[in-house]
Automatic annotation (TrEMBL), chain A:
Protein name in UniProt: Phenol 2-monooxygenase P2 subunit
Single GO molecular function: monooxygenase activity
InterPro entries reported for this sequence: MOase_MmoB_DmpM, mOase_MmoB_DmpM_sf
Pfam families attached to this UniProt entry: MmoB_DmpM
Bilayer-spanning residue ranges: none
Domain of life: Bacteria
Family: Belongs to the TmoD/XamoD family.
Keywords: Monooxygenase, Oxidoreductase
UniProtKB/TrEMBL annotation, chain B:
Source species of the chain: Panacagrimonas perspica
GO molecular function list: monooxygenase activity
Record bears the keyword Lyase: no
Keyword vocabulary terms for this entry: Monooxygenase, Oxidoreductase
Alphabetical list of Pfam families matching this protein: Phenol_Hydrox, YHS
Domain spans labelled YHS: 414-456
Database matches in InterPro entries: Ferritin-like_SF, Phenol_Hydrox, RNR-like, YHS_dom
Protein known as: Phenol 2-monooxygenase P3 subunit
CDD domains hit by this protein: AAMH_A (cd01057)
Length: 90, 520
């Protein structure tokens, strides 16, 4: 079994588009909803793509805006202007 | 300005280049004092760093972005706090029992935020590498923000409910608050590498999800929009802090193979210290939230065993193994909250918050969530206490408990393999006997006895007469030592603590809201 990475956000209008983008780009991702919080788990690797968010949110998006609504995450991080990746292993 | 007069404007820097200029570009090698003298704390822990440039920055958040996003978080938070106050949100929570989690939070957790502010300011100063130093300094600012926003948010509740009037004074004195206090001061009095391993990695990465995710989600579920907002606002910084913790540990391990045994010992120690501290959270989740989101046992399974397990699997390539005694924590997960709530039920007259026997519907939930233990070990005790209470004999334990020398929790936890037998461990050091709640706490003492013999144990201090206000005369006729200790704590005696059903908080809640004091 591959270990999961996860990312969790506050539930709000911005993160609705973000979570949609993530589930679109990560076929194996599963979404769990809690009061005021949404948690996305994915086996081994999870990618957040700027373009996918922009398509859904209808404006330019700087991936660092993720910080505003981020609750927690796990995994090693790779970050660029276009992608924010969580993964286990090298 | 040095804008070129003609030709193309300079190319915009990439995130990576930008961050490298901030972190590497602002650091320099000292010349008229040696680097070792300028950073005297970098070596004594035995950690060997050969090349600080190998430091990988987690989250490349440059200063302009940092202030922009932090400012935005603050505006969001305070808008919600305003709306909450204007809407009398304090009366929209599930019931007034819930408020007791805020009392514990404000007195037991918020002072740790301030401690973290101080600790990371020191760590930032003491790291030789600019990348690590900047990350620690940003965190120091974040932590100050957390302490402030929590005080601001909860101050509104202080206008209506007891127990929230003097958190810092209490933190430095009250018996159960010495648990978080000693935990954090243990970390702050270590060197910079142990401090960040303890706080950023073991606490923030491995354990705080248990505090902030299910508990804050629970606050929302109980109608407390103010608390969930400061909680999640703090947690949005936490992701950055957690990543710093993981980065620090990987960096140390990659720098020199000799670092591994030191780091592993820290991971063992700080897992156990942090886990013991979370006993308070376990009880908040299972007993103090009138509307429950998930049980402690479920949260432990999800956030430690599953997510934490994945983390340690990943670190196995550096030779790191799971923290020692994680198996004991697994054995305790169906007992921890019940045993801890039992301790506070006993001593609530000497606490700054109320306790109560769970209602029948709540016991049903506990039976479902803890099928192996609740009906067998804990329900009978609650039913007995409930009967006593109905007879007007609510039980208060008038004898002070023995405390664990390391975690400072009353010795009420049971043997890993026998939930009916209290666990006692002891060590001898310099002609004295020291007592521990567990093998984990004993190991920590045995490795650094000179540190832990100095523990300020509240019960010892009370018996030594050190917990009275100046001018108190213990020989005066009618002297009541317990009352005097509570005054020293600056408790509002008889109002801050004791049985919830008899409390003024409950009475006020019913008068002001017209709703029952127990919603279940
Ligand atoms: Fe914090
Ligand atoms: Fe202990």
């Amino acid at each position: 079994m591959t270990d999961s990475v996860f990312i969790a956000f506050q539930t709000n209008d911005d993160t609705r588009a973000i979570v949609e983008a993530i589930t679109h780009d990560n076929a194996a991702a599963t979404v769990a909803r809690f009061p005021a919080m949404v948690k996305v788990d994915a086996p081994g690797r999870l990618v957040v793509r700027r373009e996918s968010i922009e398509e859904r949110i209808g404006r330019d998006f700087d991936l660092r805006e993720l910080h505003l609504n981020l609750i927690s995450l796990s995994g090693n991080i790779e970050e660029s202007e276009d992608e924010f990746v969580l993964h286990w292993g090298n | 300005m040095n804008m070129p007069i003609s030709g193309k404007p300079p190319k915009k820097l990439s995130l990576k280049e930008n961050y490298a200029l901030l972190t590497r570009g602002l650091g320099w090698e000292t010349s008229y004092e040696s680097m070792d003298k300028v950073f005297p704390q970098c070596d004594f822990e035995g950690i060997k760093i050969h090349d600080w440039d190998k430091w990988e920055d987690p989250f490349r958040l440059t200063m302009d972005a940092y202030w922009k996003y932090q400012g935005e978080k603050e505006r969001k938070l305070y808008a919600i706090v305003d709306a909450f106050q204007q809407n009398n949100g304090q009366f929209n929570v599930s019931d007034a029992r819930y408020i007791n989690t805020l009392k514990l939070f404000l007195t037991g957790v918020s002072p740790l935020e301030y401690g973290a502010h101080r600790g990371f300011a020191m760590a930032g100063r003491n790291f030789k590498g600019a990348g690590a130093s900047i990350a620690a300094q940003m965190q120091a600012i974040d932590e100050l923000r957390h302490a402030q926003t929590q005080a601001h948010t909860i101050s509104h509740y202080n206008k209506f409910f007891h127990g929230m009037h003097d958190p810092i004074h209490m933190f430095d004195r009250v018996w159960y608050l010495s648990v978080p206090k000693s935990y954090f001061e243990d970390a702050m009095t270590a060197g910079p590498f142990e401090f960040v391993t303890a706080i950023s990695f073991s606490f923030e990465y491995v354990l705080t999800n248990l505090l902030f995710m299910p508990f804050m989600s629970g606050a929302a579920f109980n109608g407390d929009m103010a608390t969930v907002t400061f909680g999640f606002s703090a947690q949005s910084d936490e992701s950055r802090h957690m990543t710093l913790g993981l980065e620090v540990v990987k960096f140390i391990l990659e720098q020199d193979p000799a670092n591994l045994p030191i780091v592993q010992r820290w991971l063992d120690k700080w897992f156990w210290r942090g886990y013991r501290l979370l006993a308070l959270v376990a009880m908040m989740m299972d007993y103090m939230l009138p509307k429950r989101v998930m049980s402690w046992s479920e949260a432990w399974g999800m956030y430690f065993e599953q997510n934490g397990g994945a983390l340690f699997n990943d670190l196995a390539r550096y030779g790191v193994r799971m923290p020692k005694y994680h198996d004991v924590a697994a054995k305790e997960k169906d007992r921890l909250s019940h045993e801890t709530w039992g301790i506070f039920y006993n001593y609530t007259h000497a606490a700054g918050f109320h306790t109560w026997v769970p209602e029948e519907g709540e016991m049903k939930w506990l039976s479902e969530k803890y099928p192996a233990t609740f009906d067998k070990h804990y329900r009978p005790r609650f039913e007995y206490w409930r009967d006593q209470q109905k007879k007007g004999e609510r039980f208060y334990n008038k004898t002070l408990p023995m405390l664990c020398q390391t975690c400072q929790i009353p010795m009420g936890f049971t043997e890993p393999d026998d939930p009916t037998k209290i666990c006692y461990r002891e060590s001898h050091y310099r002609d004295n006997k020291f007592h521990f709640c567990s093998d984990g706490c004993k190991d920590i003492f045995d490795f650094e006895p000179e540190k832990y013999v100095q523990s300020w144990l509240p019960v010892h201090q009370v018996y030594q007469g050190n917990c009275f206000r100046p001018g108190t005369d213990p020989t005066a006729p009618g002297f009541d030592p317990l009352l005097e200790v509570l005054k020293y704590y600056n408790f509002n005696v008889g109002k801050d603590g004791g049985e919830y059903l008899d409390s003024e908080d409950k009475k006020h809640w019913e008068q002001w809201t017209g709703k029952p004091g127990v919603s279940i």
